[in-house]
Design goal:
It is found in: Cytoplasm. Its cofactor is [4Fe-4S] cluster. It catalyses: N(6)-dimethylallyladenosine(37) in tRNA + (sulfur carrier)-SH + AH2 + 2 S-adenosyl-L-methionine = 2-methylsulfanyl-N(6)-dimethylallyladenosine(37) in tRNA + (sulfur carrier)-H + 5'-deoxyadenosine + L-methionine + A + S-adenosyl-L-homocysteine + 2 H(+). With about 475 residues, the protein is an alpha/beta fold. The protein has 3 domains: about 130 residues, 3-Layer(aba) Sandwich (Rossmann fold); about 250 residues, pyruvate-formate lyase- activating enzyme (Alpha-Beta Horseshoe); about 60 residues, Nucleic acid-binding proteins (OB fold (Dihydrolipoamide Acetyltransferase, E2P), Beta Barrel). The protein is about 35% helix and about 20% strand. It is built from 14 helices and 21 strands. The protein has a 6-stranded parallel β-sheet with strand order 2-1-3-4-5-6, with helices on both faces. Strands 17-18-19-21-20 form a 5-stranded mixed β-barrel. Helix 13 packs parallel to helix 14. It is globular. The relative contact order is 0.07. The C terminus is likely disordered. It binds 5'-deoxyadenosine and iron/sulfur cluster. The site of 5'-deoxyadenosine has 12 residues, from strand 15.
């Protein structure tokens, strides 16, 4: 009988990508993926350490899993429990002490060793949080064509890992280590394999993706802008995105790519964290509010319809009302299409956690509520502005209701539209007729997409030219 593995991922896109890589490593060992812990013989918690809340979730989940593991044991059934991801990296052996159900603790740089580590863990509990010299990507097996297909037409592609920026609030430089860029040739090999299996969109990811400086086939160092041009040439690839970026690394080549590369979607997630110069300095962000504004201006000049997204932290140590007002001012000026915002959470081992002037919890909560209200208004305004327009939608799956399909706008909005005749992976034109809280609704208009054949189109409506 096949064994089943359940990987539960918390946190960022890097973890979502890693979860798939872990499943790929385990597939040749006879593990099939399940999305239910109940069914699984092997349960992997792929954890996030970025804020205290995220890290605490792991321990409550491990408490529940211990009960389940004990119950199963009484019935003679074994369960193996693995803690992976950034909590594993940060806390290592501590996890074994706090959570008796855990068999293996494995850091993000060791996933390629999972089969051997699991074998070892059958005899005694194991911790592996080394940063090995060899490149784990060289040892991670490629997923099968069917597996790639089942994961959809939009795929993450890791090009860079780690961070050298050391923002004073952030654990990433400690949990994910120093910045490493994968060589262009290896990225291209993975990209071509994904595209050959039907992937139409890449979101290239890295903790600091625009700091990418990988070795090119010409022996020179390539920037992200250059790499994006090469990725756009991969047959079948219609859309490119990248995340997450740092303002300091928005170089001319990348901004030019927004102007010159039609496949590069008009969407930029560029965390600013705060609008106050003194807080930005205390955060060690290495830029001011005005420098951020200028980057946005230049990017908007290159691609006027670009949608902007950001991350914000409120209640960083020392943040005054005036500092917070500067953040609100920046939000009002820029008008973000979407954003993530958080209360500052002191993280062990980071400089900001030791700062004296911590902000009281109730002040953080009030600021977060005010900021989120302003951001939500902007987000809804951005959504509403698409009503009446006809936009390109990449079809990703069947819609919520019969007769509907669902996909994404160029600005990363979910779109539900009436039409079942198109195929997943097509780019179609949809006239937007309304908005919900999180998605747009519309009807397909215009010609049938060229990629549609009679075979793929089950209920052909014939020509549908505009
Ligand atoms: N407290 C609150 N938010 C944080 N982030 C990172 N570290 C912390 C912290 N200690 C937020 C930042 C970052 C996003 C991924 O998480 O906004 O951009
Ligand atoms: Fe963390 Fe700053 Fe690096 Fe982003 S740039 S991962 S916030 S240290």
């Amino acid at each position: 009988m096949k064994k089943k593995v359940y990987v539960k991922s918390y946190g960022c896109q890097m973890n979502a990508y890693d979860a798939e890589r872990m499943a790929d490593v385990l597939a040749p060992q006879g593990f099939v993926e399940t999305d239910s812990a109940e069914e699984a013989d092997l349960i992997v918690l792929n954890t996030c350490h970025i804020r205290e809340k995220a890290a605490e979730k792991v321990y409550s989940e491990l408490g529940r899993l211990r009960v389940m593991k004990d119950e199963r044991k009484a019935e003679g059934r074994d369960t193996t429990i693995v803690v992976a991801g950034c909590v594993a990296q940060a806390e290592g052996g501590e996890i074994l002490k706090r959570a008796s159900a855990v068999d293996l603790v494995v850091g993000p740089q060791s996933y390629h060793n999972l089969p051997a580590l699991l074998e070892k863990a059958r005899r005694a509990r194991v911790v592996d949080t080394e940063f090995p010299i060899e490149d784990k990507f060289d040892h991670l097996p490629a997923p099968s064509r069917d597996k790639i297909r089942s994961r959809g037409v939009s795929s993450f592609l890791t090009i860079q890992e780690g961070c050298d920026k050391f923002c004073t609030f952030c654990v990433v430089p400690y949990t994910r280590g120093a910045e490493i860029s994968r060589p262009v040739a290896k990225i291209m090999a993975e990209a071509e394999r994904l595209a050959a299996a039907g992937v139409r969109e890449f979101t290239v990811i890295g903790q600091n993706v625009n700091a990418y400086h990988g070795e090119g086939p010409d022996g020179r160092t390539w920037s992200l802008g250059r790499l994006l041009h090469r990725l756009a040439e991969v047959p079948g690839i219609a859309r490119l995105r990248y995340t997450t970026s740092h303002p300091r690394d928005m170089d001319d080549e990348l901004i030019d790519a927004h102007r010159n590369l039609p496949a590069l979607m008009p969407y930029l997630h560029l965390p600013v964290q705060s609008g106050s110069d003194s807080i930005l300095a205390a955060m060690n962000r290495k830029h001011t509010g005005d420098e951020y504004r200028r980057i946005i201006e230049r990017t908007r000049a290159a691609r006027p319809d670009i949608a902007l997204s950001s991350d914000f932290i409120v209640g960083f140590p020392g943040e005054t009302d005036a500092d917070f007002d500067a953040t609100m001012q920046l939000v009002r000026e820029i008008g973000f299409a979407s954003a993530y915002s958080f209360k500052y959470s002191p993280r062990p081992g980071t400089p900001a956690a030791q700062m004296a002037n911590q902000v009281p919890e109730d002040v953080k909560s009030a600021r977060l509520a005010a900021l989120q209200q302003a951001l939500e208004e902007d987000r809804q305004r951005f959504h509403r502005a698409t009503v009446g327009r006809t936009i390109d939608v990449l079809v990703e799956r069947k819609g919520r209701y019969a007769g509907q399909m669902a996909g994404k706008s160029p600005w990363l909005q979910g779109v539900q539209f009436d039409d079942e005749t198109v195929a997943i992976g097509d780019i179609v034109q949809v006239e937007i007729t309304g908005t919900g809280t999180n998605s747009l609704f519309g009807q397909r208009v215009g010609a049938d997409p060229a990629s549609l054949t009679a075979v793929q189109r089950p209920h052909s409506t014939g020509a549908n030219a505009a």
